Amino acid sequence: MLTACAPAGQPSSEPATSKLKAMATTTIVGDVVKAIGGDTIDLTVLLPVGADPHDFEPTPQDVVKIAAAQVIFMNGAGLEEFIEPLLKNAGDQAKLVSVSEGIQLLDAVHGEEEEHVGGDPHVWFDPNNVSVWTENIEQTLSTMDPGNAAIYTSRASQYRTRLEELDGWIKEQIDLVSQANRKLVTDHAVFAYFARRYGLEQVGAVIPGYSTAAQPSARELAQLQDAIRALGVKAVFVGKTANPNLSKRVAEDMHIKLVFLYTGSLSEPGGPADTYLVLMRYNVTAIVEALSD
Q1: DSSP β-ladder status, 183-188 and 41-45
Q2: Helices 127-144 and 27-37 sit at what angle, rounded to 10 degrees?
Q3: CATH of segment(s) 20-170
Q4: The domain defined by 178-291 carries CATH number 3.40.50.1980
Q5: Mean pLDDT, range 102-116, rounded to an integer
Q6: Please, what sign has the CA dihedral across residues 103, 108, 114, 115?
């Protein structure tokens, strides 16, 4: 009625319909939310491209962004430890959804100087876990925006089909690597879910913990180098969001390859890993190439 009674030529102060205001913490979570929500929702992503979710430091502007959101999708499993105080400062108005809810977490790997309660948060390196994400995202969007529930259900189903195709492709690619060479050394303990799913072994990490914010001891670095030497490891894989200095030193000392992967963030739009599905294909291609004879 207020709209009908507004003076001619003067727009209503409120639109007839408004999109659900959603936020995702990381670019990877945001990409999956976008695949399901599409242009039906108004989506923003908190962390910029290239940001490390383990040591992200929010700004006052981030608090403003969170305050405007109706729902916030986060990886969960302890990845975004920064989000709880940030939400409190923003008034805790948004519905907070852990997309990893329902995934059986692997035990976190701990270094001598790191303590963390909970499991390994890097669940997205198994596409089957991301399939669980889609279920949580679909259910949340459908509940909060029931008028578009059929759209969310359709998109989620289509995306799960693409995840199944990705899973099959990864198996085919890893089959090209000999059993003896299926050993991963990474900058931090990031590939446990990937290794379990596809028959590899995560034999060590430069930072022996789940977080890039931790620091290895001299003894831990020496133990890692001994393992690399004994097992004939071919490469050290380092995430593009992590500081590569320690990994580079280990690779140089052991005379093995240093290979960069996308782990905690997508690439910039139009880059080589600008969606989750493309990121996984990029990483798998690089891993197979580095581990092949």
Answers
A1: unpaired
A2: 60
A3: 3.40.50.1980
A4: yes
A5: 68
A6: positive
Q: Tell me the mean pLDDT in the region 56-82.
A: 90
- HEC string of 194-238? HHHHHCCEEEEEEECCCCCCCCCCHHHHHHHHHHHHHHCCCEEEE
CA atoms within 13 A on the CB side of 192: 20
Binned at pLDDT 50, 70 and 90, residue 39 comes out as very high
Length of the chain in terms of residues written: 293
Closest CA to 59 of 93, 82, 39, 34: 82
Instruction: Quick: pLDDT tens for 114-167.
Output: 444 568 999 999 999 999 999 999 999 999 999 999 999 999 999 999 999 999
Compute the Cα dihedral for 145, 147, 151, 154 and give only its sign: positive
Question: Residue ranges per domain, the chain?
Answer: 20-170, 178-291
Mean pLDDT of 55-71: 88
What amino acid occupies position 124? W
Distance between CA atoms of residues 16 and 207, nearest Å: 53
In the chain, which ranges are E strands?
A: 20-24, 41-45, 71-74, 95-98, 183-188, 201-207, 235-239, 257-261
Q: What is the mean pLDDT of the chain?
A: 86
Separation CA 263–CA 224 (nearest Å) = 21
Query: What is residue 95's predicted lDDT score, i.e. its pLDDT?
Result: 92
What is the rounded distance in angstroms from the CA atom of residue 180 to the CA atom of residue 164?
A: 27
3-state secondary structure of 286: helix
How many of the other CB atoms lie within 10 Å of CB of 129? 21
